[in-house]
C-alpha cells in the first residue's frame, strides 16, 4: 500500500505545526523520520494514522482519498499500526493473551481468528506461549515493550508507525527489537512498510531505506539513507542532527588521505570495510 | 476535553484581588461562605449576589471564564432543582398529575438551593482564579500551622497538596496520551454507544493508574534522594506577608458578613 500526503498542513491552536507536507510512502520500505524535538515528527506520524481529525490538504491511500466522516474529519485508519513512545505504559489487560487480542476484539474477531493471529505473532517478537496466561505487569520492561508492539502487529498493519521504539532500551535489546521489526517486514513480501521516528543515527543508517528529514514543521528532505549520510550531511547539520560515528570516521579518512572514498552504502559494515581498505592502502604505501 | 474538568483555574490578571495575601482570600471566602449558608430572605440573597458579583468584577477575570467553569456542575444543579420541584412539599399546590404534585414551596426551595450553590461556586472560582495554586497551598499551610502543636503533620499535608496540584497537568497530559494510544488500537470512545462507554474507561484508567503510581514511587525516591525529609522547619523563598490592603480587605469582609448575617 502506498500512503501519500499532498499539501498537508496542521494548525494546533494558533501554532502551525506542519506546513505543506508532500510525501509518498511506498510499500515495502523502512522509512525513518528524523528532526529535532518540536520539528513536527509526532504530528506527521499521528496524521498518517488518522489521529489528526482536522488538517488542510489531502491524504491518499493506494491512489484513493482516505475516507472521512460526515463532518469531513479524518478517521483512525485500521490498515496503519501505531506504536506510541513507551508503549508498555498503555498495557492494561489482566493477561498477556487479552492484551495481545485487544485490538482484534475491538474489531469483533472470534476466538479462532484471535488464536491464529497470536500464534503467528508470538514467535515474531520472541515470546513463549507460556507467557499468555501471565499478567503483563509482572514481566520485564523489554518483554512488556515487545508485548505492546505485538499487540499492534497482530492486526497485520500495512504501514507500521513507531515513535522512538528503542527509547530507554539497552544496546542488545535495541538490536533485537529492530531485527524483529525487520523480520516482520520481510515476512510481508514487500507489502509492509515501517515509518520509524528515531534519534539514533546509527540505527537509522543501519536499517532504513529512506529518510524523511523535518525541520520547523516542514519536510526538508526525502531521500535514501545512503544519499543522506554519504552525500547530504548538510541536511543533518541544518536540522541540528549528528552523523553516525563511523561515518565521521569515513569523513576523517577522506580528509587524511586527501581523496574521496568511493562507497554507495551507509551500513556500518560496508563503511568500515571501505575505511579498512583505504587504511591498508596507506599502510602499504608507507611500507614501500 | 479534560481541561474543562478544572473548575476555576488561575487566570493571570493585575487586580486588587490578585495582589491580596492568599490567607486573606481564604479567610474571607470561608467567612462569606459560612454567612451565605445562613441567608434565608430574598433580600439576603440579593445582597449576597451583589457581593459575589462585585468580587468577580474586582478580579478582572472575563465573565465568560466563570460561566464556562459552571458548565461541568450544570447536571448537579439541574438535578437539585428538579428534585426539589418534584418532591418538595408545602401548602400551595401549583400543578398535579397522578402521583406528581408540584408545590410552590418546593419550587422556591429549589431555586434557593441552586442559587446558593451558584454563589458558593462563583466565590470559590474567584479565589482559585486570582490565587496561584502554590500560594493557595502555602496560605493553607500557614493558616493551619497552629494545629501542628497538636501533633497534626501540617508540613506533610501541605507538601501533599502542593504535589497533587503540581501533577494535575502532568496527569492530564498522560491521560490524553493514553486516550490517543488506545484510540489507535481501535478503542475509540467517541464512536461507542453510551451504554458501552460506561465500562470503556478500564483501558484508560488502568494504565493511567499504573503510570501515576510509578511516577509517585519515583517522586518519593527523588524527594528522599534530595534530602527533603518531611519538610519540617522549612522556610519559603517568598514568605507571606500581610499588608495594609489585607487588613483593609479582611475588615471589609468582616463588616459585610456581619451586616449580611444580621440582615438575613
From TrEMBL, chain A:
Keyword ATP-binding among record annotations: yes
The entry's keywords: ATP-binding, Cell membrane, Membrane, Nucleotide-binding, Translocase, Transport
UniProt domain ABC transporter: residue ranges: 3-241
PROSITE patterns linked to this entry: ABC_TRANSPORTER_1, ABC_TRANSPORTER_2
Chief location category: membrane
Localization per Swiss-Prot or TrEMBL: Cell membrane
InterPro entries, sorted: AAA+_ATPase, ABC_transporter-like_ATP-bd, ABC_transporter-like_CS, ABC_transpr_CbiO/EcfA_su, ECF_ABC_transporter_ATP-bd, P-loop_NTPase
Keyword NADP attributed: no
Membrane topology field: Peripheral membrane protein
Gene3D superfamilies according to UniProt: P-loop containing nucleotide triphosphate hydrolases (3.40.50.300)
MF (Gene Ontology): ATP binding
Family assignment from sequence similarity: Belongs to the ABC transporter superfamily.
Name this polypeptide is given: Energy-coupling factor transporter ATP-binding protein EcfA2
Gene that this sequence comes from: ecfA2
From TrEMBL, chain B:
Keyword flag Membrane: yes
Protein name: Cobalt transporter CbiQ
Location of this chain's protein in the cell: Membrane
Coiled coil: none
InterPro entries: ABC/ECF_trnsptr_transmembrane, ECF_transporter_component
Keywords of the record: Cell membrane, Membrane, Transmembrane, Transmembrane helix
Isomerase is among the record's keywords: no
CDD domains: EcfT
Transmembrane stretches, start-end: 26-53, 65-86, 113-131, 245-263
Pfam family, one: CbiQ
